[in-house]
Amino acid sequence: RAMVFVLSEAGKPIYSRYGNEEALSSTMGVMMALVSFIQSGDNAIRSIYSDDRKLVFVQQGPLVLVSVSRTLQSEQQLRQELLYVYYQILSMLTQVSITRIFERKKNYDLRRLLAGSEKILDRLLNLVESDPGFLLGAVRCLPLPASQRDALGALLQKAITPNLVFSILVAQSQLVTAVQERAVIEECRLEPTDLHLLLNLIGASSAFQAGEIWTPICLPRFNPDGYFYAYISYLDAECTVCLVLLSTDKESFYAVSDCKKRVEEAMRTQGSLQVLSGGLQSPSYSVGQVGVPGYPGELPPAAPVHQRQLSSSPSPELEGPYCSEEEQQRLFDLYHYLHSRIHSTSRPLRLIYHVAEKETLLAWVTSKFELYTCFSPLVTKAGAINVLTKLLRWIKKEEDRLFIRYPPKYSTTPNPGKGTKGGRPDGAENGFFAGL
Amino acid sequence: MKKPDGKVVLLGDMNVGKTSLLHRYMERRFQDTISTVGGAFYLKQWGPYNISIWDTAGREQFHGLGSMYCRGAAAVILTYDVNNLQSLIELEDRFLALTDTASTDCIFAIVGNKVDLTNEYALLLERADESRPEKPVTSCISTKVQKQVHLDDAVALYKKILKYKMLDEKDVPAAEKMCFETSAKTGYKVDYLFETIFDMVVPIILRQQAEGPPQTVDITNYKSAKRTKSGCCA
Ligand SMILES: Nc1nc2c(ncn2[C@@H]2O[C@H](COP(=O)(O)OP(=O)(O)O)[C@@H](O)[C@H]2O)c(=O)[nH]1
Ligand SMILES: [Mg+2]
Prior knowledge:
Chain B: This is Ras-related protein Rab-20. Chain B: Belongs to the small GTPase superfamily. Rab family. Chain B: Its main location: membrane. Chain B: Pfam families: Ras (PF00071). The radius of gyration of chain A is 23 Å and the shape is globular. The longest helix of chain A is centred in the last third of the chain and has 22 residues, at 381-402. Chain A has 436 residues and is an alpha+beta fold. Chain A has three domains: 3-130, Beta-Lactamase, CATH 3.30.450; 139-282 and 408-435, Dynein light chain 2a, cytoplasmic (Beta-Lactamase), CATH 3.30.450; 287-402, Beta-Lactamase. Chain A contains 13 helices and 15 strands. Chain B has one domain: 3-Layer(aba) Sandwich (Rossmann fold). The longest helix of chain B has 21 residues, at 190-210. Strand 8 (212-217) of chain A pairs antiparallel with strand 2 (39-46) of chain B, so a sheet runs across the interface.
């Protein structure tokens, strides 16, 4: 997979995937030399292609991110991957702080502040390369009957305290429901990217049920310069169901912890944990469920579906030849390739019918959804379209179960005494919220 | 929930083993791959009391959350890595100031962790053998190194803390009693550390309770503090 390095403008190593920075510092040195050489000509390097690999550079403020890859991934995707890494670093430190730190001291060793978080970045990169949600900019959501999802949303709506902005319920990294403060304006809703970063941070930390976490966290797409204070707690002994409450008040731990107790209590009376574990045990959906008539030797259509405004993307359980990890990775690389073709900046496409060596792939993008499917190499174009039509019909029917359509809201009544400060992430000076 | 009666805070640089110590004590095991996001709050039943323990990440000063974690604390456990002198220096430079919001009669413990990695470890074990029921895992100690920080250094720091807090040595527990060396990996002296601290916290809880509930004072404190703060904030 892609090697990824992060270094400071002064050439200090900050992060490297696979291995310690000391051992790789010579590689870093070469890269730095390259970067500074081309920068000096007012002409930053974007990428270098050699016979069998690509080097992609991204500079964000005082950080330089580099990816070295031999896969099918396009430059654009590698760049996206690097941006995710950058955003994850911001989620821990914020953009202003990083800028300020390096303004004060050009050769600051940022690892002083990031020690221990290598695991978070390692995990992020593994996800970016294997979870279709990252490719599509959508978060996987736990399939659940709409009535049950609504009930859980309603329960979160009731457990509130001043300055609470987002309440998010997650089961094994799949979104169950997310409720948000009404004052957060439409364009600034919880972004899938931010949610990915948040869930990755949680997934990478040691889970143990006894503890409650209270930590500053920045959602860089929402606001790269401000902190929220995240309350994170598991609700079951197996640490599968996790409640995340985001507040703008760093002192509100006890009040927010109390909200969790109310959620826990209500979930107990409603038997919600059983509902969720039921939802987790049933596979997200199988090809059989879709009711597509079998073609001889047909491969499963693997269909990460994404409905733009809904931020959610189920994919079927991979079957047949795609059980092994290598095959899954290979398939995913193919999807990556199609994704880059379809979203090519120079020549974007709406539909691709791609006949590969071992399978035939079909990718389709409309204003409402983005669909990637994979068929046996023997499929005909008409046959594939026929399957797609059936699949889309099934998805339409199951829409309420598969997607979160209308995220519920609450009003945590910004305390009038606190004036306009209520409902803003700490340190935010931008008008992200309505009604200011 | 019953409000916690007393508060204990673990402070110290990243990677010194704070989370591992707490894991070892609460869950009776050691996990090599632990990463902490910010602060984590735990409750421990100690006799009739509920003691809350805050594990912190080591970035508190940067994030400005240290005072929140420490407010009203009855005990602060300052943790360093015996193989890393800088981690002891950081305690004084970066972490001591965070304890300004702790309770006035807060007790301080200084803990040097990861002794299992040092060449003195076998010696320490012999000395403590009778009192230890658990067998240490000696097989995982392969690369022993010369210890970088000695107990004397910790004692010296303890005395500096007393000076900083303007406390008289006669009024507080003796330095020798409050400087510990532990291994979260083998469990060496971990129970002893926490249990000693909890026992010492009980009288503080009793006094705090006699003077009024500390946790509610906590919240009121914050409200008045915030009001004045927003008054002067641009
Ligand atoms: N050998 C040894 N390693 C330890 C010990 N305590 C922690 N570690 C390791 O040191 C690293 C940091 O530990 P952690 O508890 O996360 O430190 P924290 O940042 O202070 O919470 C981890 O890799 C632990 O496995 C110990 O007593 N002995
Ligand atoms: Mg920790």
